[in-house]
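Two quick folds needed for the group meeting slides. Do the first one here.
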Amino acid sequence: MKAVDEKVGRFIGNSDTVFIIPPFQRNYSWDEEQCCELFDDILDSIKKDKSHYIGNIVYYVGENDRAGFNEYILVDGQQRITTILLLLCAIRSKLSAEEAKRLEKKFLINEDETDEKYRVKLKQTDNDLRVFEKIITNSVLSSEERENKLFKNYNYFIDRLADFDEETAVKFYNATANLDIVDLNLKIEKDLEAVQKIFEKINSTGKELSVADLIRNYLLISNNSDEQKRLYDNYWVKIENLYQDKEKISEFAKHYLITKRGIWAEEKKMYNTFKLYFDNTNISKEDILSEILKYSQYYNWFIDENCPDDKINIIMKELNVLKSDDMYSLLLILFDTLYENNKETLRKILDLLSDFMIRYRIVSPTNGSGDIRKTLFTLLSKITKNDITLDYDSILYELSNSPSPGGRFPDDEEFRNSLSKYVNTAYAKALLYKLEYKEVRNIEVDIRKVTVEHLMPQTLSDEWKEYLGGEAKASLIYNTYINNIGNLALLSRPLNSENSNDIWDNKKKNIQDAQFVLTNSIDKNCKWDDNAITNRCETITRLALRHIVGPLQRDRDFESMEVTEDFASGIYKANDINFKVTGRTIKSIIFENVPYTIRGWFELVAITCKVLYDLDKDKFTEILKQNKIHKSTFKYSYYFGNDPIICNEEKYLVSPYYLENANCYVESTLSANRAMYYALELIKEYGLLDKFKIEIE
């Protein structure tokens, strides 16, 4: 890095120089207020006969640099340089033809350059390029172009200079050229990581960059401005065009990162995690951009509900009503694998996921989102590591055997009980809509255009209270059944508005005209009370249990180690250890009758790794690389997912234990139970649980 005190005139006026604003930089954004401040500072410098400092210009030399020609790629200062050039254009209009030509040649145009790319001194981003070059070349702008900030600020300077005669204009011109800057050449050569870090640091003090901004810059930064533009035009512009709300790109990036790591990405750490992950892979920036573009199309289908496949789109709308954002990462993998190759399997799996979410939301096994994420991300991880076959039966099996109780697939009994109590109206809408579709096999109404009607209204009028048997009885029925599934029915929005909290005899007339079978099948002669609600609840529940797929019988324990027998000192086969070992002492691990002494629980995982590495190095390397043995936490933002137990870098471990034969580090700060758990998981990866024994006292 080289910093030099410099004058604006000498810096911009160097012959055969072009400044490149990278495509990842923001568009021109200065307002009249900032232009006014710059203009007044120059006037003040003339009065005081003292130059004025306007800040640093930070850049690096692009590799397109050639003999006698400099290409400066700007990292910071593009707003100031752009504004000064606009000011010089305005000053040009006040000078004699000869002086104007001299100014133009020195500061605005590389007159002898035949390559249009290098003709104008400052190469703007695509959004500002045309307007800026028209101002520089003194061309006529359209009425639309005159609304651009560049022209408005240029026009502001024209107005401020209106009363200047040529002598005053020349004095102002000289003062502008005499402005002080710090010319800061990063001199990074091929070290683009250094440029990115400097860019992040510089931009951390201004308007905060979004995650999408930072990721875009990380992927597009290059020594070659042509390569930057090619990647920007071929990928990033197309990505941005998919989103009306550009903030959605940052949300997409989170789900894309989850597909790579298999765990939740914290908002505050997301960019750093993204960069760490891809810095430690061999994936090219272009390959990342290509995949992001492809995945963005799928993500756009999810959030805008515009998938070209109508049947899939219906399910996507159901999932969105069920607030299934945590599932988007999994959906990206499913669409990427199946959409072009096997749509029928994809539809079946999506329908299953919708059933899972309906049951999960209505039963609500947990109040937090961590458990369902663990279920979904565990499934995602197994798919990406090819641990399971990507078909309907495998997905159903994995959902049925969730890692934690809070993320479980609710069974029929839980589902039935919840339907008879309280059902959130949004989730009731998804259930009733799906049952309608399954029953009649043809539903043309968009789920977004229907609403859920409380047949016994949410606000009981005096007439309703009397209808239900008086104040006390009405209150009891209301509190018991108001959100029971039997009291909820689909209606179109106009009907819902008409019905309001009308008395039943009036309300049921509209219900009979409803276009939904499950709504208009309500007995028009019935009295709408607790018995009617209970009867309809049983009908809906029976249909729900028939059509909304439930889990298989579990054949895998939740992820925990429970005591199943009294402990006794001795040697245990690894596949027999299903008890807690807290308070016990480990003596050795035995493989093929060879004992390996262990000094304490802290050493169990490391010694297990040593034995397994010597047995099959390639297998061990695969386990390490894929981070198959890891914690459920992600405190360290490890680039391959959850906090590792085995790692090539000690900084990701609490207490690293160096394993010399494998040249890696193993976590040693573990409870006895967790050490045993991870050791068994390692042995299980090798398929050798029946071959290992462990001696415990």
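Then this one, please, same format:
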Amino acid sequence: MTKYLSDIEIAQKAKLLPIKEVAKSIGFEDSDLIPYGEYKAKIKISTINRIFAEKKKDAKLILVSAITPTPAGEGKTTVSIGLTQALKQIGKNVNVALREPSLGPCLGMKGGATGGGYSQVLPMEDINLHFTGDLHAITTANNLISAALDNSLHFKSDLNINPRDVSWKRVMDMNERALRDIVLGLGGKGNSVPRESGFDITAASEIMAILCLSNSYSELKEKISNILLGFTNDNKPVLVKDLNVEGAVTALLKEALLPNLVQTTENGAAFIHGGPFANIAQGANSIMATKLAMKCADYTVTEAGFGFDLGAEKFFDIVCHYGKFKPSAVVIVATIRALKMHGGIAKKDLGEPNAKAVLEGRGNLEKHLDSAKRFGMKPIVAINKFVTDTEEEINAVKEICEKNDAEFAVANIWEEGGKGGVELAQKVAEMADSDKCNYQRLYDLDSTVEEKIEKVAREVYGANGIELHAQAKKDLRKIKKLGYDKLPICIAKTQNSLSDNKALIGRPTDFTINVREILISAGAGFLVPLTGEIMRMPGLPRIPAAEQIDIDDDGNISGLF
């Protein structure tokens, strides 16, 4: 039986090029970089401004999304990297732009987010852990606002903030359910005003969303200044600009705004920057990194988090709106294992060949294919191949794709790297170079907030409609009064189902999306309807991945995946 190396073993055996050589391969000089050791660098703002000012033609943008996630795994990041390597193998000038991992999932259940096998971005351990400190800077910037806000309450400033009507929360980059709901200011007068609050995970912070939607320091500062924190005792909005800290918050993000440059296992350039979750935020890397990647190649591959219903919808309706992107191709990743789970097979039985179960799980894939077409895209399905997949099972997926007028390719990129994705790369390049995809928004921004939520619920999730709970109705009245009703929507929903109930796998029918409340992310420029039981601070599983991670006396890390 073939013994396969683990992802971290492959990463540690890879031969890395100095980052200056990788940078030179896409047109950067040493003077354009801020090195973070030998294998990581940021691109200087002066270089970014110069490149953006040159008006060079943009690369063809290729979006990678997926079917609804299962515990069996789908591998969007692996396919994104493998596709990039494969495009390079067929002679294309290509870059990849991806999100940075969050520590919470890395040490919790999900593991790392740097790809897998021979399709990874490196150095794997650095990227998955502290990397260049971007998430720490975002955490600190967010919490400076929190500290300034509570300081204003403590000194009873002229802002007259109502402590019971503060929506802004602190954040940390860790899964920590015990901090979801807390009481601040206990212990006497010297410890500020007692009030209820809580923590979100850093990836859900509005600062993260804003960083990923900003093109410059001035735009970043402007967006931060417009963050809505709460309301005064006479019901007037309180913004960050009222605290006079937007300059300091932006200063803390000076280097965090700059895209990070690393490399793939085949030494191709990779921009890794920003990491908003797709179930509770916009789910895409920074528009600055994507734009930079598009100026340095003929093709750029990027990824949207979780399934198409979350990451891709938000990419098309939010990120493309603010980044002025027009994708030329979309890839939907599926695995035989995940399709079998959507067909009702238990995880422990996935190793058994079962083409019938693959066909029974077809509904989930078909819904995502249908959704892609609603955005004017002609999707390509990539099967992220596992060693247990059989020809009969693969042919079952091919049959599904043929019946749904979708291109199809097997990608053996975990095991073979770029050469295992050549067929996929050829089909993607052909699609990107054609005029078959004509990207369009799903909804009109001038529609009412209810209409926008209902449009996504019906056309992307397959719901019968939406139900607005009492708090959501109250929020809608406030949103309209404050003039935020023309913003795009960023629905927070479980990633485990097309519905808002994580137990409903496959392609659920006859369900309603329950909207509990609607948050205003005025700085980022979108509204966040909270649905079902979604939370903005995850918890650790019973046995977290952190229990497997270790380090030896030579500094070698093990157990990270």
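Slide caption for protein two: The chain has three domains: 7-128+262-433, 135-252, 451-531.
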